[in-house]
Design brief:
- Helix 1 packs antiparallel against helix 17, helix 7 crosses helix 8 and helix 9 packs across helix 10.
- It is built from 21 helices and 12 strands.
- By secondary structure, the chain is an alpha/beta fold.
- The radius of gyration is 21 Å and the shape is globular.
- The strands form 3 sheets. Strands 1, 2, 3, 6, 11 and 12 form a 6-stranded mixed sheet that branches.
- The chain has 2 domains: 182 residues, 3-Layer(aba) Sandwich (D-Maltodextrin-Binding Protein, domain 2); 162 residues, D-Maltodextrin-Binding Protein, domain 2, CATH 3.40.190.10.
- The N terminus is likely disordered.
């Protein structure tokens, strides 16, 4: 049985259109990018009902670091304030399933883990680590989440995951001054993106920053090109390994990607430099150096705002954004997310899952920026700038009309392990974008091994 995922066959153009309009408006409105000083409590006497847990100690494991981790700890602090429990954040390493396996083998599993892939939820259930959500958490989920976001947290029809965090992975951020100096315009199609890149290059600035040291960024590049070019049905088939990576549609997508990755002067530091650049640095180097940054554009999701916040650039004025351009007939909309999964079934763990399924928890982190929630009960006004507000509004308006990150749907061995599988194969392709056939052969070999008998 393959990992649970959204299998809708409706067009994904609705959200793409909403995002295009939203981002065009927000680029004009010039959000100041300031953090909301009120990002703490939604009021300990209001909102979701939680039990008293004085004397209870809980552990939550996640791979989050830096600002993202610090902001999540503020959410946990509010849970502590309301319940009397003490919650410890446990930093995990990728792949988190392997990290959890070592903790469980040592008899010290965390109470709750934030799992970034539906495939990882499926593995946790198969290994009998994950515990089903209780009635209170289910009640919050049904009240606050669309059916699609509930479904990707299910395995064999039973609810295990609360998608606390979402991501819109179909965005390209750009240095507004670099674009202005180049006379470059926001592109709507892949062809226009290449024209824009050339204009930026001619102005003396490298067009793209690529965080190739983190293989997941490369899978996201591929997924956007593939979804737009091959279409939703093919996307679903490849995500389930119902078609092979040697399929002509994959060849077409890789050939398209090579139009950017294969031009060394288009990528900051060339392929070698990109492969040594981790995701956070790929963002910050785009927005430091004034109008002479190391690159003018960086592709990644809405969460890049956390890293932009580490520079002096302001979202909406210095740092602007446009939807990933249409490669085929429609612009792609790829979403991702992180789900809270209970590993130790207790009153405290169930209460924490319930809290994370509530708008109370998500509103705290929304106010702090660099975060997007699939919880439809979170007020749009909680997000700290017009760019983020309109991205959030568009996500909720889309309902179930999106595609979930393909590599996150795959078995972890293929789609979620540093130095292996799809991550490694696309890093090798970035190094040698001329070898399309070789990349396809490696991808198919690794996918077949990971999916095995039913994946």
């Amino acid at each position: 049985m393959r990992s649970n995922t959204i299998r809708t066959h409706r067009a994904v153009t609705t959200l793409a259109a909403l995002l295009a309009g939203a981002l065009a408006l927000s680029a004009c409105s010039g959000g100041d990018g300031k953090k909301d000083s009120g990002g703490g409590s939604t009021g300990s006497g209001s909102g979701v009902s939680l039990p008293k847990l004085n004397g209870v100690n809980l552990e939550v494991a996640a791979v989050w670091t830096g600002t993202e981790q610090a902001n999540f700890k503020k959410v946990l602090a509010e849970f502590e304030k309301r319940t009397g429990a003490k919650v410890t954040f446990v930093p995990a390493q990728d792949p988190i399933i392997n990290f959890l396996g070592s903790k469980i083998a040592g008899g010290q599993p965390p109470d709750v883990a934030m799992l970034p892939q539906p495939g990882a939820i499926k593995q946790a259930v198969d290994k009998k680590w994950a515990k089903p959500l209780g009635p209170d958490a289910l009640k919050e989920l049904s009240k606050n989440y669309s059916q699609g976001w509930q479904d990707i947290g299910k395995v064999d029809g039973k609810q295990y995951g609360v998608y606390y965090k979402a991501a819109n992975k179909s965005l390209i951020w750009y240095n507004a001054k670099a674009f202005e100096n180049a006379g470059a315009k926001e592109p709507k199609t892949w062809k226009e993106l290449l024209t824009t890149a050339q204009a930026v290059y001619d102005s003396g600035v490298t067009p793209f920053s690529v965080g190739g040291a983190d293989g997941w960024t490369l899978t996201d590049w591929f997924e956007n090109v593939y979804l737009s070019q091959a279409g939703p049905e093919k996307y679903d088939q490849l995500a389930q390994h119902k078609i092979k990576w040697t399929d002509p549609s994959v060849k077409q997508a890789l050939t398209t990607l090579a139009q950017v990755w294969g031009k060394k002067d288009y990528v900051a530091g060339g392929a070698d430099g990109a492969l040594q650049t981790e995701f956070p640095a790929s963002v910050t180097q785009t927005f430091t150096g004034g109008d002479q940054p190391k690159a003018a554009m960086v592709y990644e999701g809405d969460f890049a705002q956390v890293n932009i916040g580490d520079t002096k650039a302001k979202v909406g004025t210095d740092a602007k954004v446009f939807p990933f351009p249409a490669v085929g007939s429609a612009a792609p909309v790829v979403s991702g997310g992180d789900a809270a999964v209970i590993l130790k079934d207790s009153k405290g763990a169930q209460a924490l899952a319930t809290f994370l399924a509530s708008p109370d928890a998500a509103t705290i982190q929304a106010k702090l920026g660099g975060y997007l929630s699939p919880n439809k009960s979170v007020p749009v006004s909680a997000y700290p700038n017009p760019v983020q507000q309109k991205i959030a509004k568009a996500l909720i308006a889309s309902g179930d009309d999106f595609r979930f990150d393909m590599s996150d749907q795959a078995p972890q061995a293929f789609g979620g392990t540093p130095g292996k599988g799809e991550w490694k194969d696309l890093q090798d392709f970035l190094k040698n974008p001329k070898d399309v056939a070789g990349a396809q052969t490696k991808l198919e070999k690794d996918a077949a091994a990971a999916y095995g008998n039913g994946g």
